[in-house]
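About this split. The held-out portion is used to measure sequence recovery: a designer receives only the structure tokens and must propose an amino acid at every position. Recovery is the fraction of positions where the proposal matches the reference. Here is one held-out target exactly as it appears in the evaluation file.
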């Protein structure tokens, strides 16, 4: 569960909590086509969608997708709680779009109705992009079996959050759900902050934790390959990454920053459970968008029984610079 869903779970009006969830960055665009300002939602799937995709969802039937207007319909507390616990579009898409093949492109806001229909049916009704353990075994899908699978899938996703939450351990007044190992690999074309070069180092912040790499002297293309370990609390946000130029006699100069969204990694890992039970496979992705620093989509894989994610980012608020990272999720029971 992210810091967003944890915060939204506090007592308050359903409409207010739903609006707060909708205002999260990943929920400001349609989960299926990326259209801005979605005003509809599938309450059993847990995604916000636009009017055009809403029409397709309705055509699938309520046994596949139960659609409500965010502004016009009355929501039960149970429906609001379900949306909040799933976490919104990023969490749901990390499951429902875990295995989108290269031959299938996600539709944009202006695609034809037929293209939109084919993708949404494949995603939710046929469930072609799910991890194998959640897919229907039988080739025949009746309305009854589809309803049962959709309900079972929603329960599995919800149960993955709840079972992991129940195994959390206490440290002081903070509950931790696992460990995040970040390998800071290298930087490319970093900004000059001294006369001809820089002495860069990387700082990671998560909650009250602050870790940093060693300083690499006079190098705009530094190689660190250094592992940093962060404890992830129940209420977590993005990892705040900053790059600095080390100065001996003055304050260190900023060389760029970025927010690293760890929710897709944690959501995918929790949905699968023990990764050692699976072979090497892709289980999710963090999608590149104008709202994040990704250079390309960041793929989440099981590799040798471990959940890992390769991340390439363009540093923000600086003239140039890129970083390459690897993240690995370690649940507390490991």
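Reference sequence for scoring:
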């Amino acid at each position: 569960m992210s810091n967003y869903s944890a915060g939204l779970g506090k007592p308050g009006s359903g409409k207010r909590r739903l609006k707060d969830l909708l205002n999260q960055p990943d929920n400001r665009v349609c989960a299926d086509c990326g259209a801005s300002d979605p005003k509809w939602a599938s309450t059993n799937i847990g995604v916000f969608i636009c009017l055009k995709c809403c029409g397709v969802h309705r055509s699938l039937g309520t046994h596949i997708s139960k659609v409500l207007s965010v502004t016009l319909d009355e929501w039960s507390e149970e429906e609001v709680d379900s949306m909040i616990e799933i976490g919104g579009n990023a969490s749901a898409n990390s499951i429902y779009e875990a295995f989108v093949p290269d031959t299938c492109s996600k539709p944009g806001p202006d695609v034809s109705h037929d293209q939109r229909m084919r993708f949404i049916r494949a995603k939710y009704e046929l469930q072609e992009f799910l991890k194998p353990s959640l897919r229907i075994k039988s080739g025949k899908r009746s309305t009854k079996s589809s309803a049962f699978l959709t309900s079972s899938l929603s329960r599995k996703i919800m149960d993955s959050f709840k079972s992991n939450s129940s195994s959390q351990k206490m440290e002081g007044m903070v509950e931790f759900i696992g460990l995040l190992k970040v390998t800071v690999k290298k930087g490319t074309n970093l900004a000059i902050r001294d006369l001809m070069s820089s002495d860069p180092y990387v700082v990671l912040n998560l909650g009250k934790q602050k870790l940093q790499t060693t300083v690499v002297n006079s190098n705009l293309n530094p190689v660190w390959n250094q592992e940093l370990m962060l404890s992830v609390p129940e209420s977590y946000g993005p990892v705040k990454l900053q790059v600095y130029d080390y100065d001996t006699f003055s304050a260190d100069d900023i060389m760029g920053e970025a927010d690293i969204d760890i929710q897709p990694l944690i959501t995918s890992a929790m949905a699968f459970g023990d990764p050692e039970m699976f072979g090497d496979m892709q289980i999710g992705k963090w999608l590149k968008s104008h709202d994040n620093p990704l250079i390309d989509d960041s793929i989440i894989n099981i590799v040798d029984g471990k959940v890992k994610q390769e991340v390439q980012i363009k540093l923000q608020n600086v003239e140039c610079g890129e970083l390459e990272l690897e993240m690995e999720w370690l649940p507390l029971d490991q």
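Annotator remark: Residues 26 and 90 are 6 Å apart (CA to CA).
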